[in-house]
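Title: Comparing notes on inverse folding

I've been comparing how different people in this forum approach sequence design from structure. To keep things fair, I'm posting one structure and asking everyone to reply with a full sequence. Here's the target:
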């Protein structure tokens, strides 16, 4: 079952995570959409923590290794593929980096349209500032504000992702995914 995370990302439609997907897609730009992901990603129960690092010549979306290889590969692939779709093909990552070994980096490179670096020093996606500023085709500030209200309500009811609960979630995610 090689490349399961990539194949799953390829067949996961926009709207599979309705609230989260439309929080992102109604944003003005790729960067604003990523900021929505960074803030609201945990409403779907995903163990991947996203952190944006904006630098002068590149933007990195970093993912903590504790989420496990499958979750990191799936989330990275899904982000690149969906942003490419929502910018009518204009979005391109400059590279995708995984701290772990990948079965077929070439397959990821062909699917994602950028270099893939296995066994790198971090996990995630890097892009140019121009890609970060690309407009999303479904941008809708009124709908996004309505969705943010709903998402904030969900976040307020969720327990904080710290301590033992977070460790258990990450441990389970890391154990389940390799057995696919």
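Reply #1:
Here's my take.
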């Amino acid at each position: 079952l090689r490349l399961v995370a990539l194949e799953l990302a390829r067949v996961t439609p926009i709207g599979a995570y309705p609230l989260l997907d439309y929080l992102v897609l109604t944003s003005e730009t790729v960067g604003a959409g990523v900021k929505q992901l960074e803030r609201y990603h945990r409403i779907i129960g995903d163990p991947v923590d996203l952190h944006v690092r904006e630098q002068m010549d590149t933007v990195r979306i970093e993912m903590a290794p504790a989420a496990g290889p499958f979750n990191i590969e799936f989330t990275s692939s899904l982000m690149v593929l969906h942003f490419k779709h929502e910018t009518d093909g204009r979005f391109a990552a400059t590279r995708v980096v995984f701290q772990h070994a990948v079965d077929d980096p070439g397959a990821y490179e062909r699917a994602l349209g950028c270099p893939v670096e296995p066994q790198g020093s971090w996990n995630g996606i890097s892009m140019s500032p121009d890609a970060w500023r690309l407009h999303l085709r479904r941008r809708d500030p009124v709908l996004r504000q309505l969705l943010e209200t709903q998402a904030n309500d969900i976040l307020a009811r969720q327990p904080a992702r710290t301590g033992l609960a977070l460790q258990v979630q990450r441990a389970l995610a890391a154990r389940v995914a390799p057995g696919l």
